[in-house]
Amino acid sequence: MENKKVEVKINNVEYTLLTNESEEYVQRVALLVNKRMAQIQEGNKQLSTAMTAVLTSINIADELLKNEGVLDNIRLELKRYMEEAQRSGEELEAKKLEVEKLKEDMHKLQIELAKKETELSSVRRRQG
What is the C-alpha separation between 119 and 100, in angstroms, rounded? Predict the structure, then answer.
């Protein structure tokens, strides 16, 4: 994307930003910063604009770092879930193979049983 100029207003000061982000996104960022600065100024009207900007930056950076920590935890949890799903899939495949083997064994035993029943029937006819 090509860089473009976007006009924003933060704390009643207009800024021209050069960005490759969409104007809508940049306006959302500016609105967030403006709201945060207003909240801080509301709590202490005697803060300078520079001090308000620094406190706003600290608060936003704090949230960013906390969210990065949350995101890292979610990534680890997702990785564990994916590994568990893979293990479960492998176990399922092993169980399917086991079921097939048991079906084969059962089929062989059924054939053997049929042969034995035939033999038994034959023996009974000869004796009877």
Answer: 29
User: Which H/E stretch holds residue 76?
Assistant: helix 49-127
Angstrom distance (rounded) from CA 71 to CA 44: 33
In whole angstroms, what is the distance from residue 115 CA to residue 109 CA? 10
Q: Can you tell me the distance from the alpha carbon of 36 to that of 11, in angstroms, rounded to the nearest whole number?
A: 10
List, for residues 2-39, the tens digit of each pLDDT value: 899 999 999 999 999 999 999 999 999 999 999 999 99
* Alpha carbon 90 to its chain's center: 21
Distance (Å, rounded) from C-alpha 11 to C-alpha 33?
9
- pTM tops 0.90, yes or no: no
Q: Which helix or strand (DSSP H or E) is residue 14 part of? A: strand 13-19
Task: Give the span between the Cα atoms of 8 and 19, in whole angstroms.
Answer: 12
Phi, psi (degrees; rounded to nearest 5) at 124: -65, -40
- Both tokens of 13, joined, read 């000061």
CA distance 79 to 73: 10
Q: Give the whole-angstrom CA distance, residue 115 versus residue 79.
A: 54
